[in-house]
TrEMBL record:
Its EC number is 2.8.2.-. Keywords: Carbohydrate metabolism, Glycoprotein, Golgi apparatus, Membrane, Signal-anchor, Transferase, Transmembrane, Transmembrane helix. GO terms for biological process: carbohydrate biosynthetic process; proteoglycan biosynthetic process. This is Carbohydrate sulfotransferase. It comes from Salarias fasciatus. The chain crosses the membrane at residues 14-33. It is a single-pass type II membrane protein. InterPro entries: Carb_sulfotrans_8-10, Sulfotransferase. It comes from the Eukaryota. It is found in: Golgi apparatus membrane.
């Protein structure tokens, strides 16, 4: 009898846990079905939102209803960028929303700043190290003052910044509705070549050589040497491209974040981003965000070393070493990023 009673109590606890999990998932489903249509209702930039603390203005209000004259012109530009994303999401709804709902795992790239009511979706190879440094300054409450004093490896320690997937479902919904959400993007093929150069041509990235390089050499190089099979330190761009477009790569697991598409990292057809910054106008757009937050006088976005960045000419050189078929396949892989963020078809592509 005691055993039966104990089993009933355990079953009761399990049922309550299952119910709570299902309820949370249901709420998340409801939110994302609603959020699909939220961007259709275009915000009026001259209407004050009711989202903010009484007697104060947050970055979201300053974006849509600027009180600083110098911010008004930029507001028009960023409305155009939002419209571009929305239009592409509408036209390509089938491919841009392969899954109708998001999971908590899909929110791990969204960094939250509670003090300034910001959400930043970080995209590797689009100044994300410096943006994480800036977010550490913003969320540090005086612990940091200069972003460049923060070592790059410390900026990537997960515990130094809080991400949206760490919140409860109601807390997630509240922040997605009321915080200013932004991301930064880059010409897709420049970003891809930048990732290749950083992860496969530099000796210190031995972890990427072992994890991805050995797999790529094993699959796509005929008569590979034992050293190449063991260390994977000399992956050619042609082999990297073959790996990316191989259907088996997509079936195995999601692409690594450094070469995953932006629309798969940040889900702009599910989450309505208030601002889309661009790598090509990085300092201007980044400092615009900081002015919206109200810290533009005390905090500037770090400058970057232009001499080492991957350029369009450099990207064209790498693409000249792959076949027309691979170029077409890579464009199809990154097509939505080109369209959403209004990047032109590169002149060096051979698509016919």
């Amino acid at each position: 009898m005691k055993q039966t009673l104990g089993e009933l109590m355990r079953m009761n606890r399990i049922c309550r846990m299952v119910f709570a999990t299902c309820l949370g998932s249901f709420i998340l489903v409801i939110f994302y079905f609603q959020s699909m249509f939220q961007p259709v209702m275009r915000r009026n930039p001259f209407m004050v939102d009711g989202c903010c603390r009484k007697g104060s203005r947050n970055a979201l209000q300053e974006l849509y209803n600027p009180t600083q004259p110098e911010l008004s012109g930029a507001a028009v530009l960023h409305q155009a960028r939002r419209d571009q994303v929305l239009d592409v999401c509408r036209v390509n709804s089938a491919s841009s929303r392969k899954r109708r709902v998001l999971t908590l795992g899909d929110l791990r790239h969204l960094v939250v700043d509670e003090d300034h009511e910001l959400i930043y979706c970080y995209v590797p190879k689009v100044a994300c190290t410096n943006w994480k440094r800036v977010m550490m300054v913003l969320t540090g409450r005086g612990k940091y003052s200069d972003p460049m004093e923060i070592p790059s490896n410390e900026a990537h320690v997960p515990s130094n910044l809080k991400t949206l997937n760490q919140y409860s479902i109601p807390e997630i919904n509240h922040r997605l509705k009321n915080y200013l959400k932004f991301l930064f993007v880059r010409e897709p093929f420049e970003r891809l070549v930048s990732a290749y150069r950083n992860k496969f041509t530099l000796k210190y990235n031995s972890s990427f050589h072992k994890r991805f390089g050995t797999r790529i050499v094993r699959r796509y190089r005929k008569n590979a040497t034992q050293d190449a099979l063991l260390n994977g330190a000399d992956v050619k761009f042609k082999e990297f491209a073959e790996y990316l477009v191989d259907p088996a790569t997509q079936r195995d697991r999601p692409l690594n974040e450094h070469w995953q598409t932006v629309h798969q990292l940040c889900h702009p057809c599910h989450i309505h981003y208030d601002m889309v910054g661009k790598y090509e106008t990085l300092e201007e757009d980044a400092n615009y965000v900081l002015r919206l937050v109200g810290v533009g006088d005390s905090l500037r976005f770090p400058t970057f070393a232009k001499s080492t960045r991957t350029t369009d000419a450099m990207t064209a050189q790498f693409f000249s070493n792959i076949s027309t078929e691979q170029q077409i396949q890579l464009y199809q892989l990154y097509k939505l990023d080109f369209l959403m963020f209004n990047y032109s078809l590169p002149s060096y592509l051979r698509l016919d």
